[in-house]
Amino acid sequence: MSEYEREARRERLDELRASGVDPYPARVGPRERIHEVSERYAQVDGPTLEADAPACALAGRIVAKRSFGKLMFLRILEDGETLQVSCRKQEMEPDAFAFAKVVDVGDFVRVEGVLWRTKTDELTLDARVIEMLSKSLRPLPEKFHGLTDVEARFRQRYLDLLANEDSRKVAVKRSLTLRAMRRFLDGRGFLEVETPVLQPLYGGAHARPFETRYKAYDQNVYLRISDELYLKRLVVGGLDRVYEIGHNFRNEGVSKKHSPEFTMMECYQAFADYNDMMDLTQDMLQSIAKEVSGGTKVDYLGEDIDFGGDWPRIPMHEAILDRTGVDVTATDDVASLRAAIQAAGHVPSDAPTWAQLVDDLFSEFVEPELRQPTFITNHPVALSPLAKKSVEDPRFVERFEVFAIGIELGNAFSELNDPIDQRERFEEQVKAQADGDDEAHPLDEDFLAALEHGMPPTGGLGIGVDRVVMILGGVANIREAILFPHMRPESA
């Protein structure tokens, strides 16, 4: 925006005030909503409107202006809906027409007039009075050619939503997704709860936390990386079905599928296991897809993603064997697994443990290929310190992750409720942390005390809301699914 244009708008603001017009009035007069008027008169033809001349008052932001001397056309926007406004000199008082000539694109106005249809059959409000509601001092981006820079779009999301209809649609779908998720869980008897965001001890995931200082208590605290351990405390306390939708924070890298601040839904169901949570996950995501997209099939950037039917349930080791030819169950330690990977013609990662090497194999060769909704089950114990061990093979746990479009959408366990086993797992994590793993899980004595009071068999599930919105909104970057993603400093 040129300094000249900004100064010109400021001068018009001063002129309004000098003439006794408040450019930012506290009240808006009677009005109807644009979408209601458009729907009511959608099927009413021009001659009928001309005979009836229905009076109407609307309010909105001017997003376009065309002037033809004694005739002007404005387009006003309210809540995603627009309607054309005509300003005809012969139909308006001189002062009202003069005022209409100096309003700017970006201004909010209230317009009174009568409805009619133009020669092109467009429903139009023929203005008699225009009132200023809020004066804009900066111009809007041009609808089709402005604000295409990705960084600018995220930094100035308010302009992105005005200029890019696709961004607005994603924002709406995000709200609809959250509403559908709540409706589903409420319908299954879950109780929505809130747990601390500032925690004296982080836990519930393998991640690096953000740390801050609580001055009143002279105490280090952490932004939560997960709701898990507090929600389980509620299950111990007799709340058998609970869920929370909220922000979690992980001090880690940023990518197309990772954001340091993200929205997670976690739910816990007493007297259930990971099989029950697989059923719940499938039913929930199918229900959300139907409510948000109108069906279980979603067009994701030209790729058909089908949430319908029963989704495959594949043990992790079988998925790895199918994609790589490596049978991880035939190996006992990191050295033998590394040799098996090399024998199969692949280059092993430098992962220091057997479990991490299994996870790296899966992430490289399997995860990107999981385009349709798929459950991957039975992960290594060392990667899952809060899940019950598998009855069939104690090297693995009763855990699943759900994938689509090559990314993880959710994670779930048969929750570990044996306090002795849980303590041993925590102690192993402490050793890993001492060996340099800064994402290892700390030992939480208060949580162990809760478990020692007794927790029923429980199934738990976490769903990444932003990633679900990516699919339903048809966007390839998680920042597109978050209204205000964190950005690096502009000087960086």
What does it look like?
Helix content is 35%, strand content 24%. It has helices at 3-18, 34-40, 46-52, 94-102, 150-155, 157-163, 165-187, 228-236, 274-293, 316-324, 334-343, 354-366, 419-434, 445-452, 465-473, 478-481; strands at residues 55-67, 71-78, 81-88, 108-117, 123-134, 191-192, 198-199, 211-214, 219-223, 241-249, 261-270, 297-300, 303-306, 313-315, 374-377, 399-404, 407-414, 458-464. The strands form 4 sheets. The protein has an 8-stranded mixed β-sheet with strand order 6-10-11-18-17-16-15-14, sandwiched between helices. It has a 5-stranded mixed β-barrel with strand order 1-2-3-5-4. Helix 7 (165-187) crosses helix 9 (274-293) and helix 10 crosses helix 12 (354-366). The chain starts with a helix and ends in an 11-residue tail after the last helix.
Topology:
Elements: H1 3-18, H2 34-40, H3 46-52, E1 55-67, E2 71-78, E3 81-88, H4 94-102, E4 108-117, E5 123-134, H5 150-155, H6 157-163, H7 165-187, E6 191-192, E7 198-199, E8 211-214, E9 219-223, H8 228-236, E10 241-249, E11 261-270, H9 274-293, E12 297-300, E13 303-306, E14 313-315, H10 316-324, H11 334-343, H12 354-366, E15 374-377, E16 399-404, E17 407-414, H13 419-434, H14 445-452, E18 458-464, H15 465-473, H16 478-481
Helix pairs in contact: 6-7, 7-9, 7-15, 10-12, 11-12
How is the CATH topology of the largest domain named? BirA Bifunctional Protein, domain 2
Helix content: 25-40%
Class of secondary structure makeup: alpha+beta
Number of helices: 16
What average pLDDT do the residues reach? 94
CATH-defined architecture of the largest domain: 2-Layer Sandwich
Shape: elongated
Q: State the separation between the terminal residues, measured CA to CA.
A: 23 Å
Side by side, the strands of the main sheet go: 6-10-11-18-17-16-15-14
Main sheet? 8 strands, mixed
Mind telling me the C-alpha Rg?
29 Å
Total beta strand runs: 18
CATH homologous superfamily caption of the largest domain: Bira Bifunctional Protein, Domain 2
Per DSSP, what share of the residues sits in E-state strands of 2 or more residues?
Answer: 15-25%
